[in-house]
Design brief:
- The chain is α/β, with parallel strands linked by helices.
- It has 2 domains: about 140 residues, ATPase, nucleotide binding domain (Nucleotidyltransferase, domain 5); about 170 residues, ATPase, nucleotide binding domain (Nucleotidyltransferase, domain 5).
- It is about 40% helix and about 20% strand.
- It contains 11 helices and 13 strands.
- Helix 8 crosses helix 9.
- It is globular and about 60 Å long.
- The relative contact order is 0.16.
- The structure holds zinc ion.
- The site of zinc ion has 6 residues, from loops.
Length: about 325
């Protein structure tokens, strides 16, 4: 049986990113009750572990001091994770290798703790308190510097044998496409991330020097980022709008594959780029219908996340909630 919501019961969510660790005490209804943020020495693994341990201990006692009844700790971290062992195997942005984060959090808080990667955490957050609330089958795609994701089937996160399933960003969209961070070519991440949007914008701006986009980048196409593309598109810049159109088609190619494979009830787009979702959501929806197997893709809503900046900590709290709910 799932734990009852007794008002002050809450979960401690910890979002361990590359430059900061954010924490929040989140109620069992998904409201943030307390939060804090700490810059981290990401290049120094040992120091970072020490910071993490102290933070968990301090936040647990601080929240208790305010009368909050923390039931469990959830940790969402960027990187490859062995959930079974509670170990962060490797992280792209932090000097962490084989760190037993679950054990450290349990020792520091005296509470059951649950560890997963940040994309799975964000997907869990959507189901806990976001647009996918109560939905058992959905695909969550996070669009940021890279592309990640989490997949729910029958109410459970798809984890696979070793817990590394759902690397949605590394399906190949174009084998001759740009090089991806993973070493292969034309992955969804290399074509439909925020970084990829910037790169496409730079490519188009080189052929169209008379553009607001290039002006915003100080005349240097190499300075064009995804953020600048969306900012220029807001002003109606033709090059930026064309960039977003092409980018949206790549994203739609990926979404079509996910719908074909997972048969979700909805698809949710999150991450920093989704905050500019009004610029591309209609194009993505149209392209999905155009590119997919009609009978499979028709009628599947493609929605934007509403959790925004809070997705990380709410997702981490959701991991804790799922962890204790399933243990009962
Ligand atoms: Zn890749």
């Amino acid at each position: 049986m799932a734990p009852q919501d007794n008002g002050r019961e809450c979960l401690l969510g910890i979002d361990a990113g590359g430059t900061k660790i954010a924490t929040a005490a989140v109620s069992t209804r998904g409201e943030i009750l307390e939060q804090s943020e700490l810059q981290t020495p990401a290049h120094d693994g040992d120091k970072m572990v020490k910071t993490f341990r102290e933070l968990v201990a301090n936040e647990t006692s601080r929240c208790r001091g305010k009368g909050l009844d923390i039931k469990a700790v959830g940790i969402a971290a960027a990187g490859y994770i062995s959930r079974k062992d509670g170990v962060l195997i490797e992280s792209p942005n932090i000097a962490w290798r084989m760190v037993p984060l679950k054990m450290i959090a349990e020792e520091a808080s005296g509470l059951p703790s649950f560890l997963d990667n940040d994309a799975n955490g964000a997907a869990a957050g959507e189901r806990f308190a976001g647009i996918a609330k109560g939905v058992d089958d959905f695909v969550y795609i996070t669009l940021g510097t890279g592309v990640g994701g989490g997949v729910y089937t029958d109410g459970n996160l798809l984890r696979g044998n070793r817990g590394v399933a759902g690397e949605l960003g590394h399906i190949i969209i174009d084998p001759n496409g740009p090089l991806c961070g993973c070493g292969r070519r034309g992955c969804l991440e290399a074509l439909a991330s925020g970084t990829a949007m910037g790169r496409k914008g730079a490519e188009l701006a080189k052929d169209n020097p008379d553009t607001i986009l290039l002006e915003m980048a100080g005349g240097d196409p190499d300075m064009i980022t995804g953020k600048l593309v969306t900012a220029a598109a807001e002003q109606g810049d033709e090059t930026a709008l064309r960039t977003i159109k092409t980018w949206s088609t790549y994203l739609a190619e990926g979404i079509v594959d996910f719908i074909h494979i997972f048969d979700p009830k909805i698809v949710v787009l999150g991450g920093g780029v989704s905050e500019s979702g009004h610029l591309f959501i209609d194009q993505v929806r149209d392209s999905v219908i155009e590119l997919g197997i009609r009978v499979l893709v028709e009628g599947i809503p493609i929605l934007l996340s509403k959790l925004r900046n809070e997705a990380g900590v709410i997702g981490a709290a959701a991991l804790a909630w799922e962890g204790i709910s399933k243990d009962h």
